[in-house]
Amino acid sequence: MPAISPKKPYRVGRSRTGLGLFATKPIKKGTKIVRYFGPLLDSRKKKDDAIENKYLFELNNRWTIDGSVRKNIARYINHACKPNAESDVNPRKRKVVIRAIKNIEPGEEINYDYGTDYFKAYLKPIGCKCDACEKKRKKQRAEARAERLRLKARAERKALKKAEKEAAKAEKKLAKHKLNGKAKHANGKPMNGHGGKAVADTVTGAKSGIFARARGKPAQESRASA
Length: 226
Ligand SMILES: [Zn+2]
Description:
By secondary structure, the chain is of the alpha+beta class. The protein has helices at residues 46-49, 116-123, 131-192, 196-225; strands at 10-15, 18-23, 32-36, 40-42, 56-58, 63-66, 78-79, 85-90, 95-100, 109-112. It has a 4-stranded mixed sheet with strand order 1-2-10-7, with no helix packed on it. Strands 3-9-8 form a 3-stranded antiparallel sheet, with no helix packed on it. The N and C termini lie far apart (138 Å).
């Protein structure tokens, strides 16, 4: 990492997308933070025009700053869609300064909007990872999750209702069945005579009958023989 004077209100540190520039002291809105600098490239020169990297800062049709040099600390500043700084371009002087557009607190990452061309070329294809876009994605994910839960709850309510309906139907059927069974019993009662008690009576009756027959046999025989 590059050496930065401790007098400066920033340091290079880890950010969501790699490295970034972070405030180490409060930075007041409107303050110049750091200059974006590097060799000037002239689009009229074939050699200059052939240079391609992510740190090219176009000043106008002719002049571009090649900010890929290590000494250019401003190159560590990441893009944000809702930034706390801006690039202040002076094409006549061919100078770019990064300036705070909000009060920046120590620890906060410094960022500025790289502009539509850069966004379209480099960020849109991979998805912008700035706070605003992450927040937006988080919100969208939460909304999608809530929608899924809503649909699930609705499906569960529907299934419960259906199950309740079916249970009620089954209960009704069972009640009807029971009622039919009771009716049969009721019909059978007079046929059995005394119902359950009648069975016991029949058993004892049969037993007593056997005894009676056993006891009565000789009598009968004797009666027959008599
Ligand atoms: Zn963004």
